[in-house]
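Quiz preparation item.
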């Protein structure tokens, strides 16, 4: 598995966790339906764009993206979302 594929998988995991957290904390009716449409933070849009771009990156660029995913703002948001789900 190439580094680009690993980074892509990592991005997808983060997107799923952040979106699941938003869904869990959204207000719902008694039947469990959402009261209003979900509004995801801008980071989700950025991650979706990054996921499509990472597959065409060089290995060095993909490594830098992986570092940013695991040490930067994205990691902080991911950990907050994980805490909400727990």
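Solution:
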């Amino acid at each position: 598995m190439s580094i680009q594929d690993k980074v892509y998988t990592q991005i997808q995991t983060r997107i799923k966790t952040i979106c699941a957290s938003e869904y869990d904390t959204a207000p719902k009716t008694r039947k469990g339906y959402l009261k209003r449409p979900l509004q995801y933070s801008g980071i989700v849009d950025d991650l979706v764009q990054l996921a499509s771009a990472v597959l065409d990156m060089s290995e060095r660029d993909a490594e830098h993206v992986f570092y940013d995913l695991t040490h930067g703002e994205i990691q902080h948001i991911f950990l907050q979302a994980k805490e909400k789900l727990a």
